[in-house]
Design brief:
- The chain is of the alpha+beta class and 352 residues long.
- The protein has nine helices and 17 strands.
- The chain has an eight-stranded antiparallel sheet, with helices on one face. The protein has a three-stranded antiparallel sheet with strand order 3-5-4, covered by helices on one side.
- Strand 4 and strand 5 form a beta hairpin.
- The chain is globular and about 65 Å long.
């Protein structure tokens, strides 16, 4: 009996150790607490939810994240004359301007999306936004003569980047007005995502005013971070709920930034190719592993026709897109069939 008892004991001890070891990660995860903070920057409110072992750790991570956003805003704001982006806008028409490494990376990605989209995305769109009164919420319809005068001031093809010297110049030898609005918040979200991961954060949700989101990991014990996608064709209903995990979601919509003139509604999202606000599109939602790219693409597919978007995204299998016009719904690589029947429960509204 004693020998049999020892054999049983020998079998039980390793099994018990294995059980304890396998439950250790779960115990560590369950010890994490959820923390939430907000921060105004880039003309919107950034929100971060993250899981950390204690308040002090969460505060440290949040402070680093929000400081990073402020640092990028100081580099890339087109509302601050002192920013590097504003300096480039003023000086690059006179000759090459050497840039900060991050600014150069930002410009490189911006030019990439301009080229890939054949100009549907264009960081030089600033003069058009100003001419149409969107900078200071004073919407107006410019004359054709005013728009014609801007032709040499708008066009991504005028941006020349030199990776060897990390410099930028404008080939038409005139100042331009670079506008980061369609990619800047995504660029900031991506920078914060990388920073938090480097800090050891395994579960967090970064929200740039509702327009660009990124989920690090999942809410402990769940499949991801739930994100409602509104159906703009059926107000108060949802196209679906996404479990976002280690990826980004961006939404383009004209629910907040627009003006009405003579009964006509003008959206703040422009087609640089026509020099006019986009018409007929209600909302675009894009899921992409990169927050920078999802932000840019939500504008690209807003400006392009659904058919153009399908052709472009056919070469990008990791990208999912949902496009609502006033009369159509187009899902590209989207899981499920959100265009068929909207869900019946009330959803949140998209942000610009």
């Amino acid at each position: 009996m004693a020998a049999r008892g020892r054999k049983l004991e020998q079998r039980l001890i390793p099994a018990l150790l294995l059980a304890l070891l396998s439950s250790a990660p779960l115990t560590a995860q369950s010890a994490l607490q959820r923390f939430h903070q907000t921060h105004p920057a880039m003309g919107t409110i950034f929100t971060i939810d993250l899981y950390a072992p204690d308040q002090a750790t969460a505060d440290q991570d949040m402070t680093l994240a929000f400081n990073e956003i402020d640092r990028l805003e100081a580099l890339l704001s087109n509302y601050r004359p002192s920013s590097e982006l504003s300096r480039i806008s003023r000086e690059a028409g006179s000759g090459p301007v050497t840039t900060d490494p991050e600014t150069f990376r930002f410009l490189t990605r911006s030019v990439y999306w301009s080229r890939v989209s054949n100009g549907a995305f264009d960081i030089t769109v600033g003069p058009l936004l100003r001419a149409w009164g969107f900078f200071f919420h004073q919407g107006r319809v410019p004359t054709q003569a005013e728009l014609n005068a801007l032709k040499n001031k708008v066009g991504w093809q005028h941006i020349a980047l030199d990776p060897q010297t990390r410099s930028v110049s404008f080939t038409q030898h005139e100042p331009m007005e670079l506008d980061p609005g369609s990619i800047g918040k995504g660029f900031a979200v991506e920078s914060v995502e990388k920073l938090l991961r480097a800090q050891g954060v395994t579960s967090a949700f970064i929200d740039a005013g509702g327009s660009t989101l990124y989920a690090i990991g999942a809410i402990p014990g769940t499949a991801g971070w739930p994100v409602d996608v509104p159906d703009p064709q059926h107000p108060g209903k949802l196209a679906g709920t996404i479990q976002l995990r280690d990826t980004s979601l961006s939404t383009g919509a004209c629910t907040q930034k627009f003006f009405i003139k003579n009964g006509h509604r003008y959206c703040h999202i422009f087609d640089p190719r026509t020099e006019r606000p986009v018409e007929g599109v209600l909302q675009t939602t894009v899921i992409d592993p990169s927050a920078t790219d999802s932000d840019a693409l939500s504008t690209v597919v807003f400006v392009m026709s659904p058919a153009e978007s399908q052709r472009l995204l056919s070469t990008m299998p990791k990208v999912q897109a949902l496009i609502f016009t006033q009369t159509t719904c187009t899902a590209i690589h989207w899981t499920g069939d959100p265009c068929r029947t909207p869900n019946l429960h009330k959803g949140s509204q998209p942000h610009d």
